[in-house]
Amino acid sequence: MLEMGKIEKLWIESFLDNEAGSQPRNIDGKTKFYALVNPENFTRKYAIEYVDQNIPNTTQQAKYFRTKPEEFKLDLLIDGTGVVKDAGIINIGITNPFEDSDNDVTARIELLKKFCYNYEGEIHRPCYIKICWGTADGLFKGILTSLDIDYKLFRPDGKPIRAMAHISLISALNPEEAVRLEDNRSPDITHQRIFKAGDHYTLLVNKIYNDQNYYIDVARANKMPGFRKIAQGAKINFPPIK
Hints:
CIS_tube_prot_N, 242 residues, 4 helices, Membrane-bound Lytic Murein Transglycosylase D, Chain A, two-stranded antiparallel sheet, elongated, alpha+beta, LysM peptidoglycan-binding domain-containing protein, single chain, 2 domains
């Protein structure tokens, strides 16, 4: 539960699947990877993809193809100098960042990689992750696309004591979320119709794709010998358009 007036740190949870109600993994005795300092900002990118009609000398608009997965980016400070003691508290001039012999941030970076990057043999892929901050449901759920570590400060022996982790994710919806958000009339999913008396094949194609010109592609996908005489009760699959 979030408390008014209390600084809530951002944290990361790791999951073996993206099903609703799944429990976070326990990694080295921890189920949460806490940020040392909350990020100053983060980025969410929403993008739509259109199909180029490639019809010269026309004013035809680009045709919608799909809504691309949402992208999420944030930077996390990983610090072992002791200058940053807690979220929002910076003790400049109080701590000598080089006097502590146990301030190497390598182990902390490896822990972050276990949460979001490392390959998991049980699921044959890296884990799903959830970014939590300011909301009980999670700020973002997705999978890692890249993790860049920018090393900033080093001890005299060359070991890193400060780094910035640049994290990039794309969304990964569980089946229930996908069904809730997906328009079931979308041409990007396969539909099946039973041909009934009074049906017109090209009108069915137009209803699914909003374009009857796909009638040949649908006939080919269903291995139909022809489409002028379709038997009542025949099942016709309407695959996603390419």
